[in-house]
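WP5 quarterly update. Target: F-box associated domain-containing protein. Source organism: Panagrellus redivivus. Length: 254 aa.
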Amino acid sequence: MCKTYDKESLYLQNNGGSLDLSTRPQFFGLHNAVDWKNNTLTLVKGCLIMTYLQALDFDHPIFDHLLIDSFSISFWYGTVLNPTALRKFSQHCNTEATTSFYADDDTIFGISLPLVCDIFKNVKTLSLRSSDYAYNRWIQDILRSKKLDLKEFGIGGRFDKLFSFEPDEISQLFQAQNSEFRLILYCLDPPADAVMLIRQKLGTYFKEFQYERSGHIDGVLHIQLGDMNNTTRMWFQVVPETSRVLDNMYYRSV
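Structure tokens (predicted):
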């Protein structure tokens, strides 16, 4: 027997050492748990979100009962992920089906854009949002990878390493990608003069603008400074905008 989940998100969670599969995050309880035992198979075609998994969990028997054909893969909330664990996970899924990849926690180590794109060759949206992820000249790795069909890339890190690029490298990156491409930079602990430093670095090269309730989204460099409780957002148009518009944009720089 095979149960298919093609629209719902499924959560694969380490719950006190036990791996559980649920249609809701574990902090809502496991009353929506999926029975993966009893010789049943579970086909996952929607989003698969992994939380609190440890590196050794990717050898767990639960993966023998999952047919992972997900368009979106997420490693969140304390999931420990390194290149070895990622390669193990990739053996359990149809990597060609995945177009969105998110690894957004400070327990992510050594996961680079070239590595992800080598394993998930059809990925179009990629987020590596760890607060200490970015390294010096990270943008050069992207340019050398020759990944030319991205629509969105998000990266987090410390201010000095996150902005260890030259404006012309940003232009090269956007010009090499899909016309819908946008880049998002996340810095949780920026210096007090971060906005001034960013404008000094980018302001003479790219047009800065603000969103109201809607706006164009293509060819945009989006910078997010601070945490959810104190956020400053900046936007720069890097390449000519397209006619695509995203409605209900409530973000505004402060």
